Amino acid sequence: MLALTVADARWNHGAVSGVLRDQFFVRTVAAESLLSAPLETLEEDHGFLVDPPSVVEDWRSRLREIPFLKDGLAGVESIPDETERAKMLVRLFSAGPLLNRCSGSDDLVQNVELVHRGVGCCSDLTMVFLALASAVTLQAREVQTALHVAAEFYDHARRAWVFVDPEFAIMARGASGTHLSLGQLRDARFRGERVRFDFFGLTGHPQADTGAVRFYYGYADRLTQLILVMGNNVVSVDRSTRRLRWLPKPAYEAIQFLLGVRPVYVEITDAWHAGRRRVGRQVAVAAAAVEGFGLLTWPLLYLVLATMKWGRGTVRGCKPITD
Fold first, then answer.
1. What separation in angstroms does the CA of 91 have from each of 5, 160, 161, 281, 292?
2. Longest dimension (CA), the chain
3. DSSP single-letter state for residue 177
4. In what order do the strands lie in the sheet containing 26-30?
5. What is the DSSP letter of 318?
6. What is the SS3 assignment for 212?
7. Taking a C-beta distance cutoff of 8 angstroms, is the pair 181, 163 a contact?
8. Number of helices and strands (H, E) in the chain?
């Protein structure tokens, strides 16, 4: 039987924080139901977080204000086949990461606009896919490997989760020709079975080159770690972040987890992966001290920077990068 390591992602923002997460916020649960169960079961039995209907409806109204989505989303939602709906949704916004870097934005609407212009990395495009999926009645969730972030959507006709990579605009098929989940793709690689990738992006998509796909998905050792994120409530998280943005990121993420707004991570441990090695408690306590010191001293640092900006007009070295 498979097992899962559940890592609370409240500290998922750096090397020091990763030490705390691995030491203090890890537990093991049965895996089978989490990997294959429909979203309703995940929500009822495993605490999978989703956006409430009222939040989704408000989000739809906000999306209508974005020119390239104003008419496109309605057309996507009208597609009955969920696999084709997922493909059309990716085509709607995925221009590919032309600048090959993350957007750096914590604003959901801004990220939607940025990825459409080719700014953003795998995590940005996956977040946008989850956000837009809720607006077109597509059930989706985030999946991760050690090197990459992608998504899965639930195909009700097949009663199965289907892997989709919004950055590369690809899905995967097994030897039988059936679409795979990321877990099934991973199993196939470790067993030496054939996997075929279907590229469905628009003409000129910069990720049509199969070299990058092979790098992330072509070798079993790069798929050893598999993580499920237990929630697709990115709109609710965005609402919370906009209210807490005056705090540093570690602080508002901690608050979001304490309030149950941000979902936990679930790391699979099985025959292919024994789990990440955890450090000793002394190291974790030292890391906690460093983390706590940073959170306690940030108001003083903010005041110093604000004073320098007021006195000099700007802070040398702190001007944001613009394209």
1. 34, 22, 20, 47, 43
2. 68
3. S
4. 26-30, 3-7, 265-269, 227-229, 140-144, 149-155, 160-164
5. -
6. helix
7. yes
8. 13, 9
Residue type, 303: L
Bridge partners (DSSP) listed for residue 28: 5
Contact (CB, 8 A) for 91 and 202: yes
**Other Cβ atoms closer than 10 A to 275:** 17
**67 close to 38: Cβ distance less than 8 angstroms:** no
CB hemisphere CA count around 65 (13 angstroms): 6
For the whole model, what pTM was predicted? 0.81
Least confident of 191-200, 230-239, 293-302: 293-302
**pLDDT tens figures, 41-99:** 999 988 999 999 999 999 999 998 998 898 889 899 999 999 999 999 999 998 765 66
pLDDT score of 18: 52
> Could you give the CA distance from residue 147 to residue 6 in angstroms, rounded to a whole number?
19
Angle, vertex CA 133, rays to CA 130 and CA 77, nearest 5:
170
pLDDT tens-digit profile of 113-138? Answer: 999 888 888 999 999 999 999 999 99
pLDDT, residue 175, reads: 92
Question: Dihedrals φ, ψ of 165, to 5°?
Answer: -105, 105
Please answer whether residues 188 and 194 qualify as being in contact, where contact means their C-beta atoms are separated by less than 8 angstroms: yes
Per the document, the length of the chain is: 323
Distance of CA 2 to the CA centre of its chain: 23
